[in-house]
Amino acid sequence: MSLRSLPETEEKTAAARAAEPRYTLTMVASTGIVVPAWATRLITEFRAADERAKALVIGLKLEQLNWQPRPGVWSVGQCLEHLCIGNELYLPAISASLAGKPLATVQEITPGRLSRWFISNYIDPSPRTKRASAPKKIVPAARVKPSVLDRFLSANQAVRELVQSASTYDVNRIRFRNPFIPVIRFTVGTGLEILSGHERRHLLQAERVKGLSGFPG
What we know:
Blueprint: H1 6-19, H2 37-57, H3 62-65, H4 76-98, H5 113-123, H6 148-166, H7 188-210
């Protein structure tokens, strides 16, 4: 069984991308609002994640989507579902934190010491990143449905819209309630950086699974 809905997904996402506002380093032409550099960068990163996800999943059979190298190691589909759940929990928390806050723009995101340590040790895909079990809230299902790509692309569209909205606030001062560790309140800027780094980490993980010699043909 192949993922027959995926060509339609490509068509839909192409139409969705065409309808999205176009960002530059300086301003949004339709509004004249200056767009900070960090927002342009993150929007570009999330679009790149979309392309990586499509390259991973389009054309896979259901068996391939759910193939695990060994018990306890996530499949391509599980990596994507994990990202979907994480985004769907983070986005409402970050969005709610912006309500009622005064408008203010910063040109760069500047995480604090604890945030930099957390991103370096648990988020960024690098040899320094520590391995840790995912919180129960974002552990993927044992079997993932073909619709996981649609879900991922939809979540990333929502992330880009949130980045656009957050770009008019001081993301280095506003903090949000962490849905996984309530006692830790990251800034909105740090939260958005976490989402992008988290996607890079697990997309790389999925790419490595797909590249293994035992991956079913």
